[in-house]
Description:
Helix content: 55-70%
Strand content: 5-15%
Largest sheet: 3 strands, antiparallel
Strand order of the largest sheet: 1-3-2
Oligomer: single chain
Distance between the termini: 33 Å
Radius of gyration: 15 Å
Structural class: mainly alpha
Mean pLDDT: 85
Number of strands: 3
Number of helices: 5
Order of helices and strands: HEHHEEHH
Shape: globular
Amino acid sequence: DAEQARAFSLLSVPDLAEISLDSAAAVLEVDHSAAEDLCESLVDLSLIEATAHGRYTYHDLLRLYSARQVLAEETVASREDARRRLFDHYLTAADATGRLRSRPGTEAARV
């Protein structure tokens, strides 16, 4: 459907070897549950692969196809918005990790 097609295209924008569920939610601008449903539906269609719980990747040829689809269908602004959302997600995670590490007597969770 249209939502799956959009997800398939936008998830290739970051050009990462793997994308986590939290990162996918940021790129797609949906909540965690909706991102999981979309990613798992793409796995069921064999468009992406689950590498571990909550981690996804493309087969190389499907990544290339998806990237071409993004260039053909999505505007430059929507691709940049997806990158910005992912960057903001990473900054928020880094900030939270920094605050956790600065507390005496606490140990940061491994990412």
